[in-house]
Amino acid sequence: MLNKLLYMETFGCQMNVNDSERIVTMLADLGYGPTNDPASADMILLNTCSVRGGAEEKVYRRLANLRIYKRDGKKQIIAVGGCVAQQEGEELLRKLPYLDLVIGTHNLHLLPDLVRGAERGERRSETSFIDNDQRLDLFPSITGESRLSRFVTVMQGCDNFCSYCIVPFVRGREISRRSADILNEVRQLADDGVREVILLGQNVNSYGLKAGNEPTFAELVRQVADIDGIDRIRFTTSHPKDMSDELIACFGDVPKLSGQIHLPAQSGSDAVLGLMGRGYTRDSYLDKIYKLKALRPDIVVTGDIIVGFPGETEQDFEQTLSLMEKVRYIDLFSFVYSPRPGTKAAELRDDMPRAVKMARLDRLMELQRFHTREISTTYVGNVMTVLVEGEGKLPGQVSGKGDIGRIVNFTGDISLVGSFVDVKIIKAYPNSFLGEI
Ligand code: 5AD
Ligand code: SF4
To answer: Which ligand 1 atom is the nearest neighbour of the CA of 304?
Structure first.
């Protein structure tokens, strides 16, 4: 019985969104049902991200705002999970007397125990990393109610240590889940009516490479594609250096594989890529994009770019703009570099004025808006097959995603949810399409 209320906020990446889904399921077993109202919640949980700066301060500010709900005499648990929890640990408990729980990125399996303890008034922080051989059995199994599109974790952690990135420090070493577990999970999801799976990991391309006799990621994709009932496969996120020819080939002959790929370049300059420790060059990145486009001419590419990395010159930045011209991303996530504690890049001299970084970000975003508009308007008049997932933006509309991952809203009956519908695109918006059956 759900007789208590959980209020949760999730920040950051899809890994966190997935962890939050798991948290909801685990806490339902303890009697917590979700609420949107922190005032009435028995437990407030922030699932945090620390990939860019300001994250810790944001969490402290948010907690300070939320603590007003924990008025004297009211038994309310306040908890922090995710990467800021991992990074700050005990320190959070010391600084914030009203905080009850800190749950690190390897410790979600302890959540029921921690919450039961907190209900008895205990305050705890659990942030120790778990050895890889034990972690294999702690991978999330199927969570949440059956929906149409589900994440399936295939690997966790990262060993790349790109010089700017805090992820290897807060998510720990890379580990691949057993393929048999993954395939069993996908089969069960298919039995439950799921039509699309999103294979999830910090760097899915290196799946299995360190695990001996497990399949490569490309082989895994083919095995997932063989499962009846699953009609569409996506994956995220990819590292260009591990994007093998074998995986690229899947885009040519696995029709279930979505026509969209997220392939973060981070920069278009070899000098900056070298300083970032990315392990590929501008040309080898572009080579992979051209190969993908040769096999799937209609593939759409999304990416991530960091501007203002220490030492980035105007020429380096222009190389990034020229890379964008060559790739033509449909959407691009762009960030101003922010130094993260403990990373190699944080030790580099960074004397570029903030105004220069912001001006570069503006130029980049303007070019991207232009590309997004140009590419998305080419779909107007075309028919797209949409997996209908729920109600649309306006009354009477339903909404879903086409093969390229963009949201399509169109007038239609709610009974269409769960089916693939051919929809004609009639208008392109910056982040979505309007269509008609
Ligand atoms: N500063 C700015 N952006 C960063 N990212 C990761 N670390 C940093 C940082 N220190 C960006 C990268 C990555 C995305 C998830 O966040 O572009 O792909
Ligand atoms: Fe960070 Fe690089 Fe690992 Fe991605 S591959 S999580 S950017 S260290």
So the answer is: 17
